[in-house]
């Protein structure tokens, strides 16, 4: 899927840039790997990989995010932390790392389009910096 990303800058404006989101089934179809490619707001290359698997026995998602460009792994959701909430065509993934809480919104517009939005809180979830990042993605028919 290709589209446009926007990241909120410190001055409140947005930096816009092209992005490519590649999703595929892995591990004999039991998990999903998503790759996000594009330039970071400063123009440097960016690559992030999300690995998602549903554990039917524990009835929970396992989601991990690897930021290749900045060399860190974030365990987003597992049986002990984080959550995935589905409401119709909208999905919210909530996770936290030391000092930060994250809400990721996936708003599925139709079978070919979705909008990804990222909210952040650095005070334990009392206040949220909404739409710190937003990507509008459209399925490629290549």
């Amino acid at each position: 899927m290709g589209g446009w990303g926007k990241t909120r800058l410190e001055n409140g404006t947005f930096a816009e840039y092209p992005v490519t989101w590649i999703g595929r089934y892995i591990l004999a179809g039991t998990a999903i790997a998503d790759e996000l490619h594009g330039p970071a707001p400063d123009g440097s290359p960016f690559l992030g990989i999300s690995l998602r698997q549903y554990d039917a026995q524990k009835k929970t998602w396992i989601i991990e995010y690897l930021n290749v460009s900045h060399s860190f792994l974030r365990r987003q959701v597992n049986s002990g932390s984080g959550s995935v909430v589905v409401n119709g065509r909208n999905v919210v993934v909530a996770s936290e790392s030391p000092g930060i809480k994250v809400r990721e919104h996936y708003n599925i517009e139709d079978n070919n389009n979705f909008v990804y939005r990222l909210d952040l809180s650095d005070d334990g979830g009392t206040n949220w910096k909404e739409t710190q990042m937003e990507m509008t993605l459209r399925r490629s028919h290549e």
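The mean pLDDT is 86. DSSP finds no helices and eleven strands in the chain.
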